[in-house]
Backbone:
């Protein structure tokens, strides 16, 4: 259950680059420009797009320059500031979320205040009261995120747990980078991430220059930061075994495919390579479900056995498509258009474009089916055993 983070105006562009995602975390702000106020027709069109692609949106309450705020200065609406202008800002974005059929609202807890004047510190009771009011006024479930700084509410998991225990509808979004910069022990993170109250994980590495407990909030790619570089008792690969919403908030989108692969486990609930009852156009083949295969493919030999007269129609190749085996590009003889069915009772059944290759097993069921139909594999709605 992986996802990326996107500005609202770039949702389609981003999805098309990372089609294996199931979730998209949307921010209504744009780099350099700031808070974005979408029109209804924009929301409708993105809403329909996401619905068609079966992508589940999550709204991250935005922060940035606000053209409607004093002098276009940056705003950071948080739970602690849930009143007045910021409350209206948050409610407006929740309403966008409603129009997009968002599953969750992610929001930062915010500063405890009192940095300049100790008397202006926000008491915990006040914070919890605002959090309660926020959930009451939101038709979408709220996830509060752990803070990168101890000057903010929720910089430890225990604090967060303390708040959400008082408001059962609220759960937690846990950020791996914030955990470290707020001075929490990395060794304990896996147990936190596995906790029932953590619904969503913000998967971010820590820039090498950020020191432990420094309260800085800067994200790094999963292959370049402190967790990737040093043995801290936690590795991003361990997230594969955690079947929760995992959202990248890392800075270099050219690395996102690699990062998504690092944390995503397509094989939860099924073994990596599994023989399965498969038919092509109703003819039985030897089917292998292989979560290491990029795409479903079929051998020439198998095709000539089930279709000796060449009745299955050929089709145009997918433009730019390349098949890679372990070390080289695999030549594709042709493409056929056929109905693939998987499962003892044909529980999965869809028409697919299948590349025919000169060698190999009969049929490999690859990631484009496994990813898109992940839920049915996960919940064993497909009976693989005979
Ligand atoms: Zn985050």
Residues:
């Amino acid at each position: 259950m992986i996802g990326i983070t996107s500005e609202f105006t770039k949702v389609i562009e981003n999805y098309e680059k990372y089609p294996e995602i199931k979730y998209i975390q949307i921010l209504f702000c744009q780099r350099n420009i700031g808070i974005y106020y979408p029109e209804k027709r924009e929301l409708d069109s993105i809403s329909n797009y996401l619905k068609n692609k079966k992508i589940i949106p999550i709204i991250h309450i935005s922060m940035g320059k606000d053209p409607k705020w004093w002098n276009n200065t940056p705003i950071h609406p948080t739970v602690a500031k849930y009143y007045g202008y910021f409350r209206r800002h948050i409610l407006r974005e929740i309403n966008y979320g409603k129009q997009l059929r968002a599953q969750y609202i992610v929001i930062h807890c915010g500063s405890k205040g009192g940095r300049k004047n100790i008397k202006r510190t926000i008491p915990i009771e006040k914070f919890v009261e605002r959090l309660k009011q926020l959930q009451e006024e939101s038709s979408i479930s709220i996830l509060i995120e752990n803070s990168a700084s101890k000057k903010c509410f929720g910089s430890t998991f225990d604090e967060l747990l303390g708040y959400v225990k008082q408001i059962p509808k609220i759960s937690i979004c846990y950020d791996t980078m914030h955990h470290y910069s707020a001075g929490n022990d990395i060794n304990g993170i896996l147990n936190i991430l596995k906790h029932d109250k953590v619904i969503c994980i913000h998967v971010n590495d820590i820039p090498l220059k950020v020191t432990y407990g420094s309260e800085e909030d800067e994200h790094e790619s999963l292959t370049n930061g402190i967790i990737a570089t040093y043995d801290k008792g936690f590795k991003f690969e361990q997230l594969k075994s955690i079947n929760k919403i995992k959202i990248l908030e890392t800075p270099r989108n050219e690395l996102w495919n690699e990062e998504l692969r690092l944390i995503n486990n397509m094989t939860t609930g099924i073994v990596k390579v599994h023989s399965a009852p498969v038919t092509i156009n109703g003819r039985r083949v030897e089917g292998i479900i292989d979560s290491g295969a990029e795409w479903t493919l079929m051998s020439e030999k198998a095709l000539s056995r089930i279709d000796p007269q060449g009745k299955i129609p050929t089709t145009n190749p997918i433009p730019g498509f390349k098949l890679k085996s372990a070390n080289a590009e695999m030549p594709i003889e042709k493409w056929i258009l056929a109905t693939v069915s998987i499962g003892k009772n044909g529980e999965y059944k869809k028409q697919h474009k299948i590349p025919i290759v000169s060698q190999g097993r009969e049929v490999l069921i690859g990631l484009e089916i496994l990813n898109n139909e992940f839920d049915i594999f996960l919940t064993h709605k497909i009976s693989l055993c005979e």
